[in-house]
Amino acid sequence: MRLPTLLLPLVALFSSSTAQAQVSPYTDTRTGISFQGISGSNGYRLGLVLPPANTTSSDVLVQLVGQGKGWAGVSLGGSMLNHLLVAAWPNGQNVMGSLRFTANYGSPPVAPATTPARSLLPILNGTYVNSTHFSYTFLCKSCLTTDGKTFAPGVTSAPIGWAQAASAPVQVTNAATALGRHNVQGLVRDVDLSVARKGEFAKWAGYASATVRVGRRWDA
């Protein structure tokens, strides 16, 4: 049976495979930041750092690593729907980052504005593109919520979702571009976030800046 043309992108979005992931801490050699990590298939990697316990900060440090020209993403609430998403992809020697939110399956639109305003502040040393992969390391400012759209500040464990696509977004220079299908995705239902809580959080968060030029080639 031939599917209507308008249905093909949506069907493609569902045709990706679910992959297993490994959860373990690691230290990024470029920045010196110690993350609680999730490693998926095809070179995907996610790192998280949170402030020390007993704090009310809504900030989180994140590292997203993906392969080739495609995009990599994370859901800070577990599944795709009704949770805050972050996607990143290479744009030449730069890396684009984008906050997304959707209640429906398909390409998620840009997340609506909030008060206080959420923002992605890149860390230069950990943000680069080379011949095999890209890395986007950033402070997700005011990103954590208590309304269920993300895991809440102060929790000790939470579900984390992840996805990776082989194909580039439609317009790589546009942070609001449509995102094509992901080839692999996964859901870790109980990530130990106590491992992600670090006394050095404030120092590492200080590496982030809205004014730095991302994308310098560190393998050159």
UniProtKB/TrEMBL annotation:
Q: Which SUPFAM superfamilies match?
A: CBD9-like (SSF49344)
Superkingdom to which the source organism belongs = Eukaryota
| Stretches assigned to the Cellobiose dehydrogenase-like cytochrome domain | 26-202
- Signal listed as a keyword: yes
Ranges in coiled-coil conformation? none
Keyword Signal found: yes
Record's signal peptide: 1-21
- Which Pfam families does the protein's record reference? CDH-cyt (PF16010)
| InterPro entries, per database record | Cellobiose_DH-like_cyt, GMC_Oxidoreductase_CD
Keywords noted in UniProt: Signal
> PANTHER family recorded for this chain?
DEHYDROGENASE, PUTATIVE-RELATED, GLUCOSE-METHANOL-CHOLINE OXIDOREDUCTASE N-TERMINAL DOMAIN-CONTAINING PROTEIN
> What name does this protein carry?
Iron reductase domain protein
